[in-house]
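Recap from last week: sequence in, structure out.
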Amino acid sequence: MEQFARRGGALPVLIALAATLAKVVGGLLALALVRPWGRMVPRWWLLSASAGASALLVIYGGLNVLLGALVLVGTIHPTGSVDRTALRWHVGVWDLWFLVWGILLALAIVGYWRRTATAARRDETANRANS
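Predicted structure tokens:
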């Protein structure tokens, strides 16, 4: 990625902007699960989008932490050189935060689901009665 960005041009900038936007949307999803203004978002959409984001974060962070740790302990031997200091930072901080973010988002989803389940059933029953 670093070499790609150093080449310059519009594409690396667009990718960086897309990554930034994805992180902002992820933060807003998490906030929508716990803040009153999140009730404006349809429940099914919020649960689906948040579950998808949580799964991506857990998979991305978890795989990077696992594979990086396997390289650090010598189980995996990459063909190229490895900056072990940078890899330690990725395993212990950067990639670990993606994993933690995904797990915390999953916990927020469970809390939101529990808080809104009764109201969702009541609304569903009322809609059936009116039909």
